[in-house]
Design a protein that fits this description.
The chain has helices at 49-60, 80-92, 107-122, 138-141, 170-183, 200-210, 230-236, 254-270; strands spanning 16-22, 25-33, 37-40, 64-68, 127-132, 148-154, 187-192, 214-219. By secondary structure, the protein is an alpha/beta fold.
């Protein structure tokens, strides 16, 4: 059975709302769960019900989830009209470097600070970082924070105008490659084939930077959910969001296996409390 998407918004009532300040900049962060911390960054157009669903899956596997609000309306169902406005605003925001030549997005420094705070609060061997779409590469950039030891790069779409580019300044790229090599990190990544926002050329660029430490996995296009929310149907227009909008929530499905592989990777790198009961 294909995954169905609700037409209503998600109130996010099972998350604690916090206002977190890093270097004088405050942002809303939704926090839930127990165990080692995982920072999950939303995809465009924001913390959708599908992003929240993925965060809950990670939480239920025994992790503390930190879900920062970076753009859009928190909990909103991804309708095409409003979401297009959110995307345009993000592309001109000083916090993001959406196009080639811009280097690393400044918001990543804030996210590194969030990871430090989450590690100090939750302990354990380190923090996981999961990026999605517009924030996909941020999970890699965050490894310049020593607390981040489990980066997951999902269908990274930046820079939008360079399908073979990486959203990293030259100095940061060199420093990331050195951190990955020095500390034996592995970078897990996912995309669909025929994704025009995250091409095979982009994965090749990651591999060129990171070598065998880059574990890039490509799912067949026909595995994508054929009935995603309107933003993904009308604006994205191709298989893209492996563990959110284009996931098919059926046991054994390739997208569900990808979700489980991500959770397994986080567990291997961070440890976890183990599955949390649904009513816990």
């Amino acid at each position: 059975m294909a995954s169905t998407h609700r037409q209503d918004d998600d109130p996010l009532d099972d998350f604690e709302r916090r206002d977190v300040e890093v270097d004088g900049v405050g942002k809303r962060v939704y926090v839930s769960g127990a165990g080692p911390a995982v920072v999950i960054m939303p995809e465009m157009p924001g913390i959708s019900p599908d992003v929240a669903r993925f965060a809950r899956w990670v939480r239920e596997a025994g992790f503390s989830v930190y879900l920062p609000s970076l753009f859009g309306v928190d909990g909103a169902y991804p309708r095409a009209e409003a979401a297009g406005t959110v995307m345009r605003r993000a592309c001109v925001s000083a916090e993001f470097r959406a196009f080639a030549g811009g280097g690393t997005s400044p918001v990543v420094a804030w996210l590194r600070g969030l990871a430090r705070a989450a590690h100090a609060e939750r302990g354990g061997p380190g923090v996981g970082a999961v990026g999605l779409c517009f924030t996909g590469n941020f999970a890699l950039s965050m490894t310049l924070e020593p607390a981040v030891v489990a980066p997951v790069v999902n269908h990274p779409s930046l820079p939008l105008d360079d399908p073979a580019g990486l959203e990293l300044g030259e100095e940061d790229a060199a420093a990331v490659a050195e951190r990955v090599r020095r500390d034996g990190l592995r970078v897990l990544a996912y995309r669909f084939e025929n994704d025009r926002w995250c091409t095979g050329r982009r994965f090749a660029a990651y591999r060129a930077l990171l070598g065998d430490a880059f574990d890039g996995r490509t799912l067949p296009a026909e595995a994508a959910n054929t009935d995603p929310p309107p933003f993904f149907r009308d604006v994205v227009g191709c298989p893209h969001s492996v563990v959110t909008a284009h996931l098919v929530d059926t046991a054994g499905h390739p997208t569900v296996r990808a979700r489980d592989e991500i959770i397994g990777f986080l567990t291997e790198r961070l440890g976890a409390l183990g599955p949390v009961p649904a009513d816990g």
